[in-house]
C-alpha cells in the first residue's frame, strides 16, 4: 500500500464529513454509509468503511470513524481517522492512526 496515496484518499473523504455540522452528522447516524471502494492513481483499490454513531448516549457527542485498507494484510492494521463533534459544533477529539506495516 502506498501510504502517501492512501492518506490523501482518506483525508479527502474525512474532510467532506469534517465540514458537516453536528446536526448533519446526527442525520447520518445509523444510515447506510457503510463500505465502498476507491481506486488510487497507482491502480491500488482501497476499501473504506465509514461509521457515524453516538459517542456515549443519544443526543450527546457524535463520533465519526473512517477506516482504510487494501484488504490483504492491511485489514489487520488499517489506516484510520476519527473525530468527535459536540452538540455545539465543536471538535472534542481528532485522531489519526497510521498502520503498523
Q: Gyration radius, to the nearest Å?
A: 14 Å
Give the helix/strand class: alpha+beta
Regarding quaternary structure, how should these chains be classified?
Answer: single chain
> Which parts are unreliable, with pLDDT below 50 for 5 consecutive residues or more?
none
- Tally the helices: 2
Overall number of strands: 5
With strands numbered from the N-terminus, the spatial order across the biggest sheet is: 1-2-3-4-5
The run of helices and strands is HHEEEEE
Give the overall form.
Answer: elongated
The largest sheet, given as strand count, sense and whether it forms a barrel, is: 5 strands, antiparallel
Give the DSSP E fraction (strand runs of 2 or more residues): 35-45%
End-to-end separation: 9 Å
Average pLDDT level: 89
How many separate domains make up the residues? Answer: 1
Query: Portion of residues in helices?
Result: 10-25%
Main attributes?
101 residues; five-stranded antiparallel sheet; alpha+beta; 5 strands
Protein described:
The chain has 101 residues and is an alpha+beta fold. It has one domain (3-97). The protein is built from two helices and five strands, in the order ααβββββ. The protein has helices at residues 3-18, 22-28, and strands at residues 34-39, 45-54, 62-69, 79-85, 91-97. It has a five-stranded antiparallel β-sheet with strand order 1-2-3-4-5, covered by helices on one side. A hairpin with a 5-residue loop joins strand 4 (79-85) and strand 5 (91-97). The protein is elongated. The N and C termini lie close together (9 Å). The model has no long low-confidence stretch (mean pLDDT 89).
Amino acid at each position: 500500500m502506498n501510504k502517501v496515496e492512501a492518506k490523501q484518499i482518506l483525508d479527502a473523504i474525512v474532510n467532506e464529513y469534517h465540514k458537516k455540522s453536528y446536526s448533519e452528522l446526527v442525520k447520518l447516524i445509523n444510515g447506510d454509509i457503510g463500505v465502498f471502494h476507491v481506486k488510487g492513481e497507482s491502480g491500488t483499490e482501497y476499501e473504506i468503511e465509514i461509521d457515524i454513531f453516538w459517542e456515549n448516549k443519544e443526543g450527546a457527542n457524535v463520533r465519526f470513524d473512517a477506516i482504510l485498507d487494501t484488504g490483504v494484510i492491511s485489514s489487520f492494521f488499517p489506516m484510520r481517522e476519527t473525530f468527535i463533534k459536540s452538540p455545539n459544533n465543536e471538535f472534542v477529539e481528532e485522531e489519526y492512526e497510521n498502520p503498523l506495516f
